[in-house]
Design a protein that fits this description.
By secondary structure, the protein is an alpha/beta fold. Helix content is about 35%, strand content about 15%.
């Protein structure tokens, strides 16, 4: 019987190594599955253009040919030449003027400066990209949160529910795109927009007054209260 005991003892280190190897493989698989489970919701809302999932349930591809933007009218461009300009030499309009020539850019939630916020906008809700409603970012002292507008030639409505530090002090509107490919395809372009409904300065102030540690939020807040002194009390609550 002794030889059998010695044989088993010689094989014991091998069995232990195999067990450790199996446990390592199991741990790696579990880690992979956990990471995948965490990452999938983010990429579903901000992933490739092959499948776009939004709060309004739209899914489908988009291409550059789908950006059927009609150029601004010559009359609107001519009228804009006499208006005061922002730092991008774009016209600054009064709130009574709903038809405008606007400089637009594009962003996506997988950019380095937005990835920390994931697929959320500045109001804390999900960024939208559907065949009906889409998100946009702007300086809230130019376009208060909740402002609804339409781009000439495009059927979708855009809602200002986000902001960005680079937009502060300008009339530029940043159009949300669900992928970097679409963001780059939109690029930077001047478009004609029509404001369907103005958003709320009151709500803008309520949100911004809780974020005054950020310079761009302080700047937007100061510009709103300069235009609307009656909201100064809201800003100091």
């Amino acid at each position: 019987m002794q030889p059998s005991v010695e044989k088993n003892s010689r094989h014991e280190p091998v069995r232990r190594s195999l067990n450790r190897f199996k446990n390592t493989i199991i741990h790696m698989r579990l880690t992979y599955l956990f990471t995948l489970a965490v990452a999938l919701p983010f990429f579903a809302s901000c992933g490739s253009a092959l499948k776009i999932v939004s709060g309004n349930g739209y899914s489908g591809g988009r291409s550059a040919q789908d950006f059927k933007v009609t150029p601004p009218s010559s009359a609107l461009i001519a009228a804009a030449s006499a208006k005061p300009k922002d730092k991008h030499s774009m016209p600054v309009y009064s709130f009574s003027e709903r038809h405008r020539v606007v400089r637009t850019t594009a962003y996506t939630c997988s950019e380095d400066d937005h990835i920390v916020y994931g697929s959320k906008n500045a109001t804390g809700t999900a960024l939208r990209y559907s065949n009906r409603v889409r998100s946009a970012a702007a300086d809230w002292s130019f376009y208060p949160v909740g402002t609804v507008f339409r781009v000439k030639g495009m059927p979708e409505l855009y809602v200002v529910d986000d902001y960005g530090s680079a937009l502060t002090g300008t009339g530029t509107i940043d159009m949300y795109q669900p992928s970097k490919e679409l963001m780059n395809r939109w690029g930077r372009r001047n478009v004609e927009i029509s404001v369907v409904q103005w958003g709320s300065f009151n709500r803008s102030v309520e949100i911004l007054s809780a974020r005054t540690k950020h310079q761009h939020c302080r700047q937007m807040l100061a510009n709103i209260t300069r235009q609307r002194p009656d909201l100064a009390k809201v800003a100091t609550r």
